[in-house]
Amino acid sequence: MKVLVTGAAGFIGFHTSKRLLEDGHEVIGLDNVNDYYDINLKKDRLKILRGHAQFAFYENNLEDKEAVENLFKKETPQRVIHLAAQAGVRYSIQHPEVYIQSNIVGTFHILEGCRHNQVEHLVYASTSSAYGLNTKYPFSVHDNVSHPVSFYGATKIATESMAHSYSHLYGLPTTGLRFFTVYGPWGRPDMALFLFTKAILASEPIDVYNRGDMVRDFTYIDDIVEGLSRIIEKAPAPDPDWSGDAPSPASSSAPYRLYNIGSNAPVPLMDYIREIEKNLGMEAKLNLMPMQDGDVRKSHADVEDLIRDFDYAPKWNIKDGIKNFIQWYTDYYKVNLPTH
Description:
The chain has helices at 11-22, 39-49, 65-75, 89-94, 96-116, 151-170, 192-201, 221-231, 269-280, 304-310, 318-332, and strands at residues 2-6, 26-31, 55-59, 79-82, 121-127, 174-179, 182-183, 205-208, 215-216, 219-220, 256-261, 267-268, 285-288.
């Protein structure tokens, strides 16, 4: 297949593109390579992807309607994996306008590109942040999500609604994936694992919100990519059992599906920190902080629908996942760990 991957220089986009190339697909990468975090990390990811003959790359903004239109016309991708977005819960509190442009306007341009170019299947990234004030665990895609606590989460819920309207109006098959705290090698520097590792190595304190009383469904990147590689192959059909009398948000009378993609094994934040300490051979200095605006205390993914439809089985635990990340981090940044 020829697959367009937006956000190809990003963490999940890089790993997804790499897997698709290894599986023999042709990949068209799109990214604006912005400076939300270290551009060199993005460039190094792209360098690896450019080593594949079946990879082509375009550096453009999703908000540039003409550039996106031209890309679709020129490359005519069969499938699209839309991962590009302005990420970050905390950043959305200070810079909400960026999220409108990137997440709402950018997604609209991708939907238009798919609609006008006979794309067979659009898979797009949503987020566990959609669950907001929900406290029924594990989080289920069949539950209502109308109470987001971050603007980031709100924009992602909006993209799910936008995708559904295109599935309904134009028959565009769309699959939305709510990602749960993805981590691993080549990860984002603004995420907890990266921040904690960097600070501990520098003997600096780490900010631990809600005084450490947090639980996360940490999901290793290889489990995410395995799921994506299966999902892109199978476009959704209308759900014959769907009813407007009791509408499930997870499916539709249109070719539309929503799934959680997570480990289904929530881990207390303090256990996660201890695992990092163990791998570094250093103790963290904890700066215990109150709960931050836009954050939630606990996340836990119900992935039963993904297991049923795609035989998805998350395999990675934090012990092996963190070990792999630390190995990558120390190699990439040429760090010598203390010897005891």
